[in-house]
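Posted in: Structural Biology > Protein-Ligand Complexes

Title: Requesting predicted complex, thiamine diphosphate in pocket

I'd be grateful if someone could produce the 3D structure tokens for the following input. Sequence and ligand are given below.
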Amino acid sequence: MIKFYSGNIACAEGAIAAGCRFFAGYPITPSTEIAEHMALRLPQVGGIFIQMEDELASMAAILGASWGGMKAMTATSGPGLSLMQENIGLGAMTETPCVVVDVQRAGPSTGMPTLIGQADVMQARWGSHGDYEIIALSPSSPQECFDLTIKSFNLAEEYRVPVILLMDESVSHMSEKVIIPPKEKIKIVERKKPKVKPSEYLPFKADDYVPPMACAGEGYAVHVTGLTHDEKGYPQATSPEVQEKLVRRLCDKIRKNERKLRDIEEFEMEDAKLAIVSFGTTARSCKAAVKRARKRGYKVGLIRLRTIWPFADEYFEKIANEIKQFVVVEVNYGQIKLEVERCVGKKVHLLPKMGGEIHKPEEIYKKIKEVYNGN
Amino acid sequence: MEIEAETHPLDKYLRTDRIPHIWCPGCGLGTVLNCFLHALEESDIDLKNLAIVSGIGCTGRVAGYLNVDSYHTTHGRAIPFATGLKLANPKLKVVVFSGDGDLFAIGGNHFIHAARRNIDMTVICVNNYNYGMTGGQLGPTTPLEAKTTTSPYGNVEHPFNLCHVAAASGAVYVARWTALHVRRLKESMKEALNKKGFTFIEVIASCPTTYGRRNKMPTGLDTMRYYKEKSVIKHGIDPSEADIEIGGDIIVGKFVDIEKPTFDEILKKLEEKIK
Ligand SMILES: Cc1ncc(C[n+]2csc(CCOP(=O)(O)OP(=O)(O)O)c2C)c(N)n1
Ligand code: SF4
Ligand SMILES: [Mg+2]
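-- Reply #1 --
Done. Output follows.
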């Protein structure tokens, strides 16, 4: 089926295709169409839409719905993501599968509500307190809004972690062709369920980092707490040993699977000496700039991050020697640049924008020339 | 005479491996929990489909002692979490157990909106007039002039009348008891558990450790005596007339018991209609 969808609608349709049957949200530009479309679509498929009183409630409600056995999502923008952070931490600590869509606008604060920003990258990773890991994906087209929303749900279920879909205002409002595959062609992942009797079930014991999940009403009488807890789920808030084991596992289940979670599009990278690193809508301008530069003989390629978190440390470490220069292009003042620099161990160039517009291909081309020619 | 028994008849409701609990001697919370266990025992609630949700605080620890699906969430957010839980699995009987600060200060907005939507859940608020867990600061129910660690010269804020808030926000069942009224409280809990819609019970309970000792009630027993002396049962009274003041009567009883379609009932009808 071929549709002509905006990124926001594609995201909502992707959620429904992924099996999402619960949406709780609070209106905020530029994400509102996702909530509106979910309000329209969910009752048609037996799902539940609820507009909550704020984003704190929205985030809490999707955690509750997930423990009630549904796939659940919320959608917001920067100010709302800020309000959700405490419960994103609860989601990480209690290993609750759910999807949080952040359609980024320019910040800080109320910033530019109707215009693009990409400055929530670090907030997505570090926004809640304490040590934890999260997964964040970033789409560059309405098609990817559809595909990566499905992927977000699948990863949330597989890893039992909140997954943040980092969209941006431009991709959310651009309309393009979106191919919707037939149902049977869409890969859907469901959370692992316990196979043992309730008396033998340890709800937070994991053999391979991710424990099987018993939801409310399934007869397992699970205790779920944001306090440091043992494998039984019982609070052990004064035991550094339990804390050590739990937090290590929560982080390692993502860190140790970085390679599996890695999702990078390489464009013209085979013989590249200079690599542009970008993501989201911005990567589209980068691609145009790389094409232009290639035509003029520059050995330039594009590394487009579809998975932002966990960061592809190993990938960048590996290519650090082959690639002479890195230029990060992003609509923020150097958030991904910091990450690339950390991994490649040398100075990385930055072409930032503070928000409100995306880079024009000419600007990126000019930067490529400058850096390439060493001036 | 010594009474010996391997188990207590109510043990089946508790995670006995988590007892002893953390609550102080003389704290009203044990009494309230005990009433709840008796209410469960006397109503035919299917434990498999009972879920308890708490926020953070001394009262918030209730979830962790009950041997059912139990969720100890974040400070103030028990109600929206419970909303998601209930809507995702309508078979569940969802009970929120939390403190006055949790439900009415940091979580106050969620309370009024869940009541307005008539989400099918029972909310039990243990009102000990202060923030017990953090050492006795003032809260939204601390009576005017009461001493707490953050109102050392006496509270200058007007308190909430929780039952008035609940009724005004749309709760279909509203009752208030103290921890002294164990039998009536238990009966109220049974009624609330068996009623569809947003049901609310306020239980005024002692916190000798952080509130009582600063307000001339240094032991749990002193508080109980106070409740005995001051409580007046007035069923059906307009809850706006049941404000709580230092030294004044504590008006208790069942104030509201009405019928109103719940959020999920209305949603179900809508889904049928658009099919
Ligand atoms: C976001 C946040 N702010 C503050 C706290 C600290 N805190 C824990 S419990 C509590 C107050 C609890 O008071 P109440 O709800 O009345 O419960 P009680 O302990 O009196 O039963 C506070 C402020 C917290 N845990 N989280
Ligand atoms: S501090 Fe107060 S509310 Fe908390 S356990 Fe002690 S007596 Fe009870
Ligand atoms: Mg209190």
